[in-house]
Amino acid sequence: MLDNTADAQKTPLVKVDNLKMYFPIYKGVFRRQVGEVKAVDDISFEIFEGETLGLVGESGCGKSSAGRAVLRLYDITDGSIVVNGHDISTSHGDNLRKLRPEMQMIFQDPQASLNPRMSVAAIIAEPLDEHQSLTKKARMERVFELMDAVGLSRDFAKRFPHEFSGGQRQRIGIARALALNPKFIVCDEPIAALDVSIQAQVVNLLEDLQDKLGLTYLFISHDLSMVRHLATRVAVMYLGKIVELAPRDLLYSDPQHPYTQALLSAVPEADPTVESSRTRIILEGDVPSPTNPPSGCNFSTRCPKVMDICKIDTPEFKQLKDGRHVACHLMK
After folding, report:
1. 62: helix, coil or strand?
2. Predicted confidence (pLDDT) per residue in 134-144, tens digit
3. Residue 163 burial (C-beta neighbours within 10 Å; 0-12, 13-18, 19+)
C-alpha cells in the first residue's frame, strides 16, 4: 500500500492496491486451464483529483490491461480499486452500472471504437440514453454542447464515422466520454493511431478540457515525450509490474530504476550537441513471456546491473526519501 507523504493531506480520487489481472489459458478438447497470462501482476498507485498519472512502458507490458481493469471492464483477479470513495473491486450488475457515469474511457483506435452504423449525434448521445432520461430537445442540446467542447461543427451531427479523419473521430470519442460529466477518464493511448500532425491537437484538447472541467486522467502511452508534456506523475511498467513511480520532472531528470534509465536513454533530444553526447543503454535479450515470468525481479534477465539477489527475491515496491517509489534491490 502506498504512503505518499507529500500528499498525506489529500484523499486520492482513484486508489489501486495490489491489483492483479490474470487471463487463463485453456487447451484441449475439454478446455482445461494449463496456465495464465499475468498481464497485471500486483500493482498499486493513487491518482489525486485534477492530476494526470502517466502510465508508460513498451508494448505488451500490461498498460492497457491495467487501465481497463481499473475501470472494471474486466473482472479482476485480486486487489482493490476505489474510485471517488466507491470500492468497485467486487461490484457487479446494477451496482457497477450506477458508478459508470463517474469513470469513462477514451480508446486507442478511434475507428474501431465507434459504431459505423450510428451517426455522430447517436454515438455521443448513447451514454445519455443509457443513464439519463432526457427529452429529445434536451438530448440534442447536450450533444451540440459536447461537440462544441471538442471542436466539432454542429453540422457534422448527422454524419457517420467513416466520413471523418482520425483526429476528428477521436474528438467524437472524447465527446462521448464527456457526456455524463465523469470525474475520472482513462486515456488508453488516445494518440497512438493518429498522424503526428494531429497528435498535438488532441493532447492540447485533453489539457484544455482538464482545466475547464477539473478532470482526472490516467494517461496510458508508450510515447515518453508526450507523457512528459502532459503528466503530473509517471508510473513505469515492465512485464505486468510498476517498477518506478515518481513526479514527472524527477523521473525524467534522475531515473532510478535501470529499466526507466534504459527507456529514457532511447528518447531523442532536439539539441544535436546533447544528442551526440548521450549514451544509449541497449537492453539485451527479449522480454520474457507473461505466462512464465522469471523468478525474483521480472527485469533480472535483461538488467545491465543485475545481482544474484535479483534472480531470487522479488524487490519491494518501496518509497524513497524523495517521495518516489521504486522496485529495485539497488535501492537501499
Report:
1. coil
2. 889 999 999 99
3. exposed
3-state DSSP call for residue 44? strand
Tens-digit pLDDT profile for residues 193-239: 788 888 889 999 999 999 999 999 999 998 888 899 899 999 999 99
* Cα separation values, 226 from 44, 45, 134, 202, 306, Å: 23, 21, 38, 11, 30
Rounded-to-integer distance, Cα 42 and Cα 239, Å: 11
Query: Minimal CA–CA distance to 243: which of 308, 302, 184?
Result: 302
Please measure the distance between the N-terminal and C-terminal CA atoms of the chain and give it in whole angstroms. 19
Its pTM stands at 0.89
How far apart, in whole angstroms, are the C-alpha atoms of residue 155 and residue 178? Answer: 20
- The three cell numbers of residue 229 are 508534456
Separation between Cα atoms, residue 310 and residue 298, nearest integer Å:
9
- Give the rounded distance of the alpha carbon of 183 from its chain centre: 15
C-alpha cell at 92: 457487479
SS3 20: strand
- What lies within 8 Å, CB to CB, of 54 at 6+ separation is 219, 220, 221, 227, 230, 231, 233, 234, 235, 248
Residue 305 CB partners (closer than 8 Å, separation 6+): 258, 330
Whole-number average pLDDT of the chain: 90
Q: Are 299 and 263 in contact (CB under 8 A)?
A: no
| 324 touches 246 (CB < 8 A) | yes
For position 328, what pLDDT does the model report?
Answer: 94
Nearest residue to 236 via CA among 207, 263, 202: 263
Please give the grid coordinates belonging to residue 191. 494518440
Backbone angles phi, psi at 56, to 5 degrees: -125, 165
DSSP state of 282: P
DSSP class of residue 9? T
SS3 312: coil
Starting at the earlier edge strand, list the strands of the sheet with 14-27.
32-47, 14-27, 78-83, 86-87
Rounded Cα–Cα distance for residues 14 and 159 (Å)? 36
